Amino acid sequence: MAKRKQTFSLDTLVSELRDLDARRKTLISQLSRAIRSLAGGEALTMPASDQSRGRRPAGTAAIRRKGPRRRKMSAAARKAISEAQKKRWAAQKSRKKLSS
Prior knowledge:
Blueprint: H1 10-38, H2 48-52, H3 75-99
């Protein structure tokens, strides 16, 4: 069964696009009002140019990561772990040489 192509007139298409644009503007204004009311009157918006460059909005540097803080390892502990791992690698390398 052959598919039938639907054809749209240019006027109909332009009209539908205008309707969609009007709806988009209405939704954006509703969202902006909701954000302002939740933020106590401040608008939480960021310029589009910063978003496209992957920049963070101003003031986000002070926002901390959620969840538990990571523990910091002392230099002595890092050195001990490094030496232990090097010993394991040396043992593994010597076993490979013996089996070859």
